[in-house]
Each structure stands twice: as C-alpha cells, then as structure tokens.
Amino acid sequence: MRFTSLLAAAILALPSCATIDPLQTERSQSGPLAAPTGSPVARHGALAIVGGKIVGEDGKPVTLRGMSLFWSQWAPQYYSAETVTWLAQDWKVSGVRAAIAARGENSAITHFDRELEKASTVIEAARANGIYVIVDWHAHTAHPEEAERFLTAIARRYGHLPNLIYEPFNEPLREGVDWSRDIKPYHERIVAAIRAVDPDNLIILGSPSWSQDVDIAARDPVAGTNIGYTLHYYAATHKEGLRAKADAARRAGLALMVTEFGLVEATGDGAIDLASSNAWWDWAEENHVSWFNWSITDKDESSAALKPGAGPSGWTEDDLTESGKLLRGRLRSAAAADAR
Questions:
Q1: Where does the Glycoside hydrolase family domain lie (predicted)?
Q2: What are the boundaries of each domain within the chain?
Q3: CA distance 191 to 214
Q4: How far apart are CA 306 and CA 300, in angstroms?
Q5: Quick one: which of 198, 278, 233, 230 has its CA closest to 54?
Q6: Which residue is catalytic, options 145, 260, 317, 322?
Q7: φ/ψ of residue 96, rounded to 5
Q8: H-run or E-run covering 278
Q9: Among 301, 234, 240, 284, CA closest to 262
Q10: Which of 57, 124, 148, 171 is catalytic?
Q11: Which of 61, 122, 55 is nearest to 95 (CA)?
C-alpha cells in the first residue's frame, strides 16, 4: 500500500509527447493534478485488495464498470483521447480497458513502440478524466519476454498513478495448458517484473480456459499483494455453471474482476441473451465484482457497441448497436445510483 500522503486522490500531470521512450522512468512532472471533482478516482483513490475484495482508500468495496476497447491493431481509431473522454463523460464509465494486441504480425510483438503509444494515449486520457484504466496484454498464448518488456515499460512510465491496473494475460487457452505448470510460472515472472517498478497497483491475472478456471487458480494462487483474477464470460454461452466456479474461487479468497464479457455468444456474435446478462449483472453487483464489456468497436458483430463507420466519439443512438444501447443505459444508470 502507498503511504497515506500518496493515497490522496491526486494524480501527477503528464505532458503529451509524440514519441515514447520505453526506457525513460517516467514523464517529466509539472506538479500534482487532482482528479476531476466527483470522478471515480477522486472518490476511491488508489485501489487495493483486502479480504478478497477490491477496495478504495476508505476500505470500502469498489465496483468499477466500464468498456473494453477492441484489439488495438484492428480498431486503432478508438485508442484516442476523444473516445476515452466520451466514454467517461457520456457513458459514465468508471474505467476503460486497453486491449493491447499480442497476436500476429501487426501486434505489439512486432510493433512495440506503436502499441505502447496507443496504451499511453488511453492511460493519459483516463488520468485526465479521473477514471481507472486496465492495460491488458491481449494474448491467447504466452509471450513472456514481450509481455514483461511491455508491462514494465508501462510501469516505469505510469506506475506512480493510482488509476492503473495491469492484466498480463488476457485469455490462456484450454487445450494443453495447466495452471500450476504453465500459467502460474508465467504470472510469477511478470508480477515480479512489475512489482520491481510498481509495488502497489492492482495486477489482474488470467487463468486457463479463456480465463474461466478461476476455481483451479484458487487452489494454487500466485503469492503477493494486490493480486486479483479475471473472469471472462459471454452471457448467451456461460451461465450458472461458470458462476458456480467463480463463487468457489471467491470462497477460497480470490478477488475477481470481470475484465471482459459479452451479452451474446462466446463467438462475439449471435443474439443478445438479456435474461442471462441480467443474471450476471445482478451477481456482479451483489458481490462487488467490477465489469468491463467487450467492446468498443464498429466491427459487424453483435458484441460490438458501435455500428460500422461510427467515429471515435459523439455517438448518437443511430451509431449504437443493440448491445451498445443496453451498455450505455446500464452504465449511466449505475453511475447515477452511485452518485446518490
């Protein structure tokens, strides 16, 4: 935990820079900049994990609600200050997730500086709007050297901010992957590298079977402080059985965060299952489990929040898909309830 003086809701101002030097320890600082009055970061400050729950500086449970951006190499137009600001001000999100692509030739593995710049843009916009930001190493297979390099560069530059959250492995596969043999050692390596730079901010870990085997991870958890686990679901595919696994992990003491979910099938397409979506939302709210929807993109699939051709901000009802309309309404209602 940070000392009390650093746990105040103050975030250091960071001037913009066209080129990122990943070896620079952090940007030059022109003095403290308070989070906007009433913003999520102003209310909760630096987050911690206590007793299997994510809590704010006052020790009370915090439920973040937000949107995930799409794979960064395929929807770069939404990795913008405009998009983050619109989500914060119009959709009333308390957090955003930057899904930094770690797959294929056009990803952070081959275009490190370009993708680091995208993450930087999202982080700085989140800081300016007083919301939290997850930097997600968006991979289905392990790339430990590249993940360590990328996330420690983020930690060196932004680890002093209280709104930063790391997600080192989006969705490990199921086949041929074992938690204790394969995924836990990967996480131990990345956690140690991050903690050497940033001792405090939340790190949210993935588990096998596309981050659904949280009950297995709970039997052999990664040691350390402020370490939680992600749970991914798609409401039309995953229902009571996955919530039972999540409840088993929670009973074992794991703090969970849903960093990715959809209202539709696990393919990212198909019809919205509203009954299952509501059951998941009720479960998350009852248990103070944060949630981030997949995703802000204009891809022609039903999980996308935007219709094809939608710009980076200023969306009207005509720009939103059925999923986008439902999410915006849910986020705005939750923010209004929190404000009361």
A1: 56-299
A2: 58-339
A3: 18
A4: 9
A5: 230
A6: 260
A7: -130, 160
A8: helix 274-286
A9: 234
A10: 171
A11: 122
Contact partners, residue 133, CB within 8 Å, separation at least 6: 95, 96, 97, 98, 122, 123, 126, 127, 163, 164, 165
Among 190, 120, 159, smallest CA distance to 2 is for 159
* Contact (CB, 8 A) for 171 and 134: no
* Per-residue pLDDT tens digits of the chain, which is 340 residues long: 343 333 333 333 333 333 333 334 343 333 346 899 999 999 999 999 999 999 999 999 999 999 999 999 999 999 999 999 999 999 999 999 999 999 888 999 999 999 999 999 999 999 999 999 999 999 999 999 999 999 999 999 999 999 999 999 999 999 899 999 999 999 999 999 999 999 999 999 999 999 999 999 999 999 999 999 999 999 999 999 999 999 999 999 999 999 999 999 999 999 999 999 999 999 999 999 999 999 999 999 999 999 999 999 999 999 999 999 999 999 999 999 998 8
CATH T-level fold of 58-339: TIM Barrel (3.20.20)
Helix, strand, or coil here: 264?
Answer: coil
Which is nearest to 58 in space by CA: 11, 134, 96, 1?
1
CA distances from 238 to 183, 241, 242, 261, 276 (A): 22, 7, 6, 10, 8
Give strand pairing partners of 292. 66
Q: Is 286 a catalytic residue?
A: no
Q: Are the beta carbons of 252 and 219 closer than 8 angstroms?
A: yes
Q: Are 242 and 215 in contact (CB under 8 A)?
A: no
Active site residue 171: yes
The C-alpha torsion from 153 through 183 and 280 to 80, rounded to 10°, is 20
